Amino acid sequence: MFLLQYTGLNALPFDPASNNDPLHFNGSSGQLVTECPPLENTAENSKKRKRASLPPEGICNMTMDSNSMTMPMSDPNAWATAMNNLGMPPIGMTGQQLMPDFDPNLGMMAGITPLNPMMPGLGMVPAPLSQDVPLVKEIIHCKSCTLFPPNPNLPPPATRDRPPGCKTVFVGGLPENATEQLIMEVFGQCGDITAIRKSKKNFCHIRFAEEFTVDKALFLSGYRVRLGSSTDKKDTGRLHVDFAQARDDLYEWECRQRMLAREERHRRKMEEDRLRPPSPPPIVHYSEHECSQLGDKIKDDGKFPEAVRVLLTWLERGEVNRRNANNFYSMIQSSNGHIRRLTGEKSQHEKEMEEAKDKFKTALSGIVVQ
């Protein structure tokens, strides 16, 4: 129920309980209801009077309490979703916000997913067809024959398991008067044909260029063939198309599998070579010439690590014998002397380092004291 508040109206000059005349409003201030004396002549009051027009200034002061307006809303989420899709903030009829997480900058709510006009069922995009819907076979008209579809209520014709790499199909139930030209005309619509092997017993084998064309040829299984308009038994037949296992198809499939296996092995080898750590440099074999060069390298500070690695490899290989034992002994002694010298230099540098540290500490403490 609406609550109306009237302000700025004059007092009524009659009793509203016993008078049915229309109210007269004006814009002046005053009380709404006052005490009025009872009217003596009721007959005159019952006469029909002219209706006074309502002045426009009397309407401007009429106010309505909006807090008392209530509208039943069974599902506020549906209302908020509709306003969200229009880019408007979701608010109720009384002004309160239905969704507190509405972002006016984005124009959408985090809690409500906006409707997608491209969804199926909204009229813009048709719903996708179900995969279970059977295909409707129709009459196929060729140049020299006509193909009539089988009864749709019958079960699909049985087929054998598909051999690997199958490109050849078996076609039975051909008319007795069928020729290779007729077979090429009917099954040439499925794809390129590479070979046709026809038998005298109303069947043949057809080899296609691609594997996917075999599925198109199987679609013709169950069709009735009629040559021209003849009704002779020799000019009619019922096709039966099935997979055929041919040596050529199997050989090509095996060759393709071997090629794929070689490519896979090459790819794995390239990956292993890429991830393999680098190999150490090769070690030369022992000879008198290499032995003399190795003795000079041991005495050189820059080539000593490489020379010691070669010497250890020769010792592990068992290159030592009676004839070159003296050479190996001299190289070992040279290496030992070089290592001793390096050890002495290391200890000397460490001693100098300790002295330098002590000198630095003394100088630093003197600076701190000053």
TrEMBL record:
Residues 37-58 are annotated as: Disordered. Residues 167-246 form the RRM domain. The keyword Electron transport applies. Keywords: Biological rhythms, Cell membrane, Coiled coil, Copper, Electron transport, Membrane, NAD, Oxidoreductase, RNA-binding, Secreted, Transport. Pfam families: RRM_1. It comes from the Eukaryota. GO terms for molecular function: oxidoreductase activity; RNA binding. GO terms for cellular component: external side of plasma membrane; extracellular region. Signal peptide: none annotated. It is found in: Cell membrane; Secreted, Extracellular space. One of its GO terms (biological process) is ultradian rhythm. Belongs to the ENOX family. PANTHER family: ECTO-NOX DISULFIDE-THIOL EXCHANGER, ECTO-NOX DISULFIDE-THIOL EXCHANGER 2. This is Ecto-NOX disulfide-thiol exchanger 2.
